[in-house]
Design brief:
- With 519 residues, the protein is mainly alpha-helical.
- The chain has helices spanning 9-17, 24-34, 36-50, 54-60, 62-69, 82-108, 111-130, 135-163, 169-194, 201-207, 210-222, 227-232, 236-247, 253-268, 272-276, 282-296, 300-313, 318-346, 348-373, 382-400, 403-414, 417-449, 453-471, 493-497, 501-515.
- 77% of the residues lie in helices and 0% in strands.
- The protein is globular and about 70 Å long.
Length: 519
């Protein structure tokens, strides 16, 4: 048997016990909640585009502007500037800090309220960045936007996982990632359309972010909170009513009782953060953290943040660079749709492992082409440049149907209710921390490593693929509140958690609670 595959009798049990069907209400609610990804994606895509616009650079980063205009400057180093990197990375550092507050609001005020707060941060941040008169105001706006990222990325994946039925949880959860890729593509198209608007094109690019911000705010006001959140906060009658509505049936007693009992156990946990660190939760915590680290060290955000800058480094003109970025954005969206259609059929592991091979090969090919064809000065040949763009598309597509969505899906479905909010805060915090690291360091790394930057990321792709093969169990079709059982069936994780008597007793209580009705 594959090291990550486990037999899951729970899957059959769940499908027999839990009644209902996929309702239009669930689909609409998930679409609205997933729109938090639009703003996340727009902020990923917009920064690299405007960072390649001369008017923007001349106003806020004159040193970079002069280096870019200097013909003898190294192809790999012309955009290397700490302040320019801080413009991009400040958003993610702010999000990192904000997620700790968001974990409390998600638990105490609910998933819906937290997403509304995210939309307010986004609207304020858009106003500050689009109207920026100096670098301080610009970065302040990015920090406020970062708070929106922290709140939105904390609440939206949990909301999607809790609203979705087990058999479609993967596809519906990936709608967050789909919206992220649409946001990136939208930003690329906006940048392409505004690049020739002298003096104010960059302001329009930043200001258009108000559209998805307003959509998120209005959408969240129309949502109801998840049954899990309502029950967790003591609103049992309302929680059951919403459960009936999203399942399309009144016969929800089994699922409702499981949620109530899981909530009762969660209430007994006095210190969720300390409980998160217990040995019985070490598989979930370890996997969730490493997925975020690995996701960033695929190199994807280095490409998505700075793709126009990267293509200009490869001696593409400004128009061609943004056009190539739009092409990769379209590939990103289409590949994410493929993930939605396949994740609950083929499973999480298969997509991750296949994509690992695909991303590894494409990055090695890019490194070889650049190593041979692009020196510090001079241009990459036209044919080699086309192959590089093609390989970037191959890489992006692999990421978009694997590490992009799975990095958010898997952590949101494996934590038990009593630590789910705190676990998600660790996930978002880790993701934004390493996003910040890559955003802050990439242009300097590109200057130092040159073409070997792609070999650096390819080594990480190999490492993360090996981790998936040996240590990540399959989670498809397993009820979110029954996920606790898979660790005791995994060849490695059962060794880690079996020798803790306190944890065994507690896990037995959870098992008894969740399976009580079949006795």
């Amino acid at each position: 048997m594959d090291p990550g595959e486990i037999e899951s009798p729970r899957s059959k049990l769940d499908s027999n016990k839990v009644h209902g069907h996929v309702t239009s209400y669930v689909i609409i609610s998930c679409i609205m909640a997933a729109s938090a990804g639009l703003m996340f994606g727009y902020n990923i895509g917009i920064s690299g585009g405007i960072a390649s616009m001369d008017d923007f650079l001349e106003k806020f980063f004159p040193i970079v502007y002069n280096k870019k205009r200097h013909a003898s400057e190294s192809n790999y180093c012309k955009f290397n500037d700490e302040k320019l990197q801080a413009f991009t990375s400040s958003l993610y550092f702010a999000g990192l800090i904000a997620t700790f507050v968001a974990s409390q609001t998600t638990k105490r005020l609910g998933r819906k309220a937290t997403m509304i707060m995210a939309s307010i941060f986004y609207i304020v941040g858009v106003g500050l960045t689009a109207g920026a008169q100096n670098l301080s105001m610009l970065i302040t706006g990015r920090i406020v936007l970062g708070c929106g990222v922290g709140f939105g990325n904390q609440a939206a994946p949990i909301y999607l996982s809790e609203m979705a039925p087990a058999q479609l949880r993967g596809g519906l959860n990936i709608m967050f990632q789909l919206n992220t890729t649409i946001g990136v593509l939208f930003a690329n198209l906006v940048n392409y359309g505004t690049q020739n608007l002298q003096g104010w094109g960059w302001r329009l690019s930043l200001g258009v972010a108000g559209i998805p911000s307003a959509f998120l705010c209005v959408g969240c006001l129309m949502l109801v909170d998840t049954p899990n959140s309502l029950i967790e906060r003591g609103h049992l009658d309302k929680g059951k009513s919403i459960l009936c509505k999203i399942r399309g049936t009144q016969n929800v007693d089994v699922e409702f009782n499981e949620l109530v009992r899981a909530s009762q156990i969660a209430q007994e946990v006095k210190n969720p953060f300390r409980n998160l660190l217990k040995k019985k939760n070490s598989p979930q915590l370890t996997i969730s953290i490493l997925l975020q680290v690995f996701q960033q060290f695929t190199g994807i955000n280095a490409i998505m943040f700075y793709s126009p800058v990267l293509f200009q480094t490869l001696a593409f003109g400004s128009d061609a660079a943004l056009y190539s970025t739009v092409i990769t954005g379209v590939v990103n969206v289409l590949a994410t749709v493929i993930s939605i259609l396949t994740v609950d059929r083929f499973g999480r592991r298969m997509l991750l492992l296949e994509a690992g091979i695909q991303m590894l090969i494409s990055q090695v090919v890019i490194a070889v082409l650049l190593g041979i064809g692009l020196k510090d000065t001079g241009d990459l040949s036209h044919s080699a440049a086309i192959v590089v763009v093609l390989m970037v598309c191959v890489f992006v597509s692999g990421f978009a149907w694997s590490w992009g969505p799975m990095g958010w899906l898997i952590p949101s479905e494996i934590f038990p209710l009593e630590i789910r909010s705190f676990g998600q805060s660790i996930v978002v915090c880790t993701n934004l921390l390493f996003t910040f690291v890559i955003a802050q360091a990439f242009l300097s790394m590109l200057c130092w490593f040159k073409y070997a930057i792609f070999l650096f990321f390819s080594v990480w792709v190999f490492i993360m693929s090996a981790f998936v093969f040996f240590f990540l169990p399959e989670t498809k079709n397993i009820s979110i509140d029954a996920m606790v059982h898979i660790w005791r069936q995994h060849w490695f994780w059962k060794i880690i958690i079996q020798d803790d008597s306190e944890d065994v007793e507690y896990s037995s209580e959870i098992r008894t609670t969740l399976l009580g009705r079949e006795k």
